[in-house]
Each structure stands twice: as structure tokens, then as C-alpha cells.
Amino acid sequence: MLSSRTPRCIGTARTTLAAALSLALAGSLAACAVGPDYHRPSTAVPASYKETPAGWKLAEPGDRADRGRWWAIYHDAQLDALMDKLDAANQTVAQFAAAYRQARALVSEARASYFPTLGLSASATRSGQQLSRSSTNNALGSSNGSTSRVSNAFSLSLDASWEPDLWGKVSRTVGAQEASQQSAAADLANARLSTQATLAQTYFQLRSLDAQQKLLDDTVTAYEQALKLTQNRYAQGVAGRADVIQAQTQWQSAQAAALDNGIARAQNEHAIAALVGEPASSFSIAAAPLDAEPPVIPMQLPSALLERRPDIATAERKAASANEQIGVAISAYFPTLTLSASGGYQNSVFSQLLTLPSRFWTVGPQLAATLFDAGLRHAQTEAARAAYDQQVAVYRQTVLAAFQDVEDNLASQRILASEIVVQREAVDSAKQALVIVTNEYKAGTVDYLNVLTAQTTAFSAEQKLSTLAGQRMVSSVGLVKALGGGWDVAQIDRETGEASAPPTAGAKPAPQ
User: I want to staple 209 with a disulfide (CB 3.0 to 4.6 A). Which of 6, 265, 476, 481 is the partner?
Assistant: First the structure.
């Protein structure tokens, strides 16, 4: 450590040269980042989807256009308006948006370690000291005394310090925070996609309930007409009292079912209100029976799922961040170099503070290393490796769950489409049977129990068909979500402002 009360040109030149050499050495060693380089964890990817039904196709180049508003494929203006409200007011999305802003700030915080820190300080102190005085003898006797001395100290200094990134600790930390920022961006996209899918599914469930409500209202009307028919036959003496009671019971049961359907509809409407950030008390959606068919959803190869699902991107980026933490832990084994310098003015007289003789400066490097820590660094490194292995397992499990999700929804779409065809035939048959039995009852060839049975069968068939139609639309939304919606991993670049995206499958990632 060099110091001087007054500046000396020779000392300054030597110090500047030493500092320059230290900076050059630090720059050459900064690329020496210890720890393992990151590679995307390997995972099994099937060549094709097993449950792909006939008539479906892989996405063509034209299908790769921006599909951020994926719900537009349903061509529902009401759904479009609700999605706009969700994006602006959903509190779950707002929560993840705040988490992303925090992750972005942490990247800036980590990058600050690349640069030196500068500090300015000024002080003024006044101190006193009591001094003893020698005793004296005279004609009157002896006496002792003391005096006090007051001194002032004024100081003005500028301090600078910098720790070169010799072993890549800072670069690894920045890489970890950048990966965490990308993970937070994917988390935000996943939260938005999940809430959008939940809204769409709830909306189609609501429309399905509206269709069932229409069916129930029509059934109540039909049962009421059947009751009037039975009452007329009873008045003519060709039907018994029991027939009237049975017809009345059937009609009243249908009324109760129509009222009960309103509970489920109200609950779905309230759920939509919460998703779009509005109080349930002031939110309502006009009834409109579901009459839509799910559109054909072009798919990409299964390998593209790794780039299209934000939850997979989140898990992969967390694994990358955990890998960088291994390098941070390993860097603790190596010594740290700190370059510091300070200079300023110091004097006991304020008016002479900014004069040449009051100047002082100090500059010099400091090398520090830990010789014994009772296994602390080894334990920290092993903990970092275990954390990485944990994130790798999470990533692989997320990939497996994603393929399961796609296959589940593909199977659901395929089976429901076939089931609806059969159910429509069943509805037609039940309606024909009801007409025949009703005519036979009017002719007096069968009793009213046959009419009740035919009515119940026809109503159950139509209700089942309406339920299947709603399930098919809900499953269609689930398939869009399982395929990643309109999201793509390249959007991480646009959201984080980074120059490089997470690596593609099987490729070596760019250095963090």
C-alpha cells in the first residue's frame, strides 16, 4: 500500500502503471469462468402424437403466423371482449408481471458488480484534550493545575474500489439472473395462457349450460302440453287419474331441473367475473346457447412442443440458472483480488483544506483467500449441484406431463367427435320413438307409462348431446393450451430484451 501526504510524480506514474497492468491481467483472466457449461438436459421426444385423429394435419408455414390471440379461431365476439378485459385486469397475471419486473431488476443488480464503486465522503470533527500542568512551590504554598487543548479536523475524500471477475463469479451470477429473468417471463406467459384457457373453458361451459337451459325450457313446455293432453283424456273418461298425476309429476320435475340449472350457470358467470377483474355483483353475461363447432387445430411436431409451451421454457431456464449457481459456488475456492484507490484533502484548518499540502492519496491491490472453512465451500458446491439435479428432474417431468396433456386432449377430441355422431343418432331415434308412443297413447293402444318412458329417454338423449357438445369445446381449448397457445420461446427475447434465446433442442447454448 502506497501513501503520501503530497503528490509525487514518480510514485503516481508507477502506481498508474501497476494499476494498468492489474487491469490488463484482470481482463485476461475474466474469461476464466469456473464451473460446468450449461447444456439443455436431454429428454425423450416422440416422433409423432399417438392420438392424432384422422383429418388432422401438421402446421404448415402459413400456420406459423402470430397466433397470440389464439382464441380468435372460435370467432366469438363476446369471448374476444372478455379476453381483452382479462389481459388488462386479471390479478394473477398482474402478480406474475410484478415478479417479472423484480427479476429484471435483479439482472441489473447483478450486472452492477462488473463495474467499480465510487464513494465521496466529507467530515468535520472538533475534539478536546485535557492536559496536566506541573506543580509549583511559593511562599503561599504549593499548587497544581491543568489546561485543555481543542483541535479541529476537516477531510474531503473520493474512494474507488473494484473486484475483477477473475474466476467468473460475477458472470455466472449475471447468467443465473438472466436465466431467472427469462424464467419469470415464461412464468408470466404461462400464467396468462392458463387464465386465458380457464376463461375460454368457463365461457364455453356457460354457453353449454345456456343450451341445456333452452332444452329444459322446451322440455317443460312439451311436458306441459302432455299434461293438458292427459287432463283432456281424463275429462273424456278415456284416461285414469293416475295418468294425470304421472304427467303432472313429470312436468314439475322438469321445472325443478330448469331452476337447478341456474345455479351452475350463476357460478360460472361469477368465475368469469373474477377472471376479468370485475365484482360478481355487477357482472353479467346474456344467455346465448352454444351452437359452435370446435375448429380444426393444426399441430406441429412433438419436438416443437419444447419451444411452444411456456411451462417447459420456465423449467428449462430454472435448470440453466441452477447450473450457473454451481460456478458461483466453485469460484469461492479461488482468491479474490480487490483494487482500491482513495484521495482527497485533510487539514485542521478549514480555510486551508483545499490546498496542495493538504492532499493525500492511497492506491493498491488486495488479494484475499480462505484457507480453512471446515468444508463450507464443499458443502455449498454440493448443494448447488443437488439443486441443479432437482431442476433437471423438474424439467424432464414437465416435458413428460406436457406430452401427456397433449395426448389426453387429442384422445378427448377424437373420442368426443365420434361419440357426438352416435349420440345425434340416438336423439333422432328417441324423438321418433316418442312421436310413435304419443300417437299410440292418443289412440288408446298403450298406457301413459310408455309415454313417460319415451319422454324420459328423449330428454336424457338430448341432454347428453348438449353436454357432449360443451365438453368438446372445453377439450378444444385444452388442446390449444396443451400445444402452447400462441406462445413461442422466441418471445422471451422480445420480453426480456436479450440478444440470445434459450437453446433449441440438442443445441449447445450460447455462453451466459
Answer: 265
Q: Which amino acid is at 48?
A: S
pLDDT of residue 150: 81
Pair 487, 480: CB distance under 8 Å: no
pTM of the prediction?
A: 0.80
Give one DSSP letter per residue of 339-386, joined into a string. EEEEEEEEESSGGGTTSGGGEEEEEEEEEE--S--TTHHHHHHHHHHH
Among the listed residues 313, 323, 316, the one whose alpha carbon sits nearest the alpha carbon of residue 37:
323
Mean pLDDT value of segment 51-58 = 65
Half-sphere exposure of 459 (CA within 13 A, CB side): 23
Separation of alpha carbons 18 and 5, rounded Å: 20
Which fold, 1-30+117-131+143-164+337-368?
Outer membrane efflux proteins (OEP) (2.20.200)
pLDDT of the residue at 49:
85
Instruction: Inform me whether the pLDDT recorded for 25 exceeds 60.
Output: no
Q: What is the mean pLDDT of residues 475-494?
A: 86
Return the CATH fold of 31-114+166-334+374-496: Outer membrane efflux proteins (OEP) (1.20.1600)
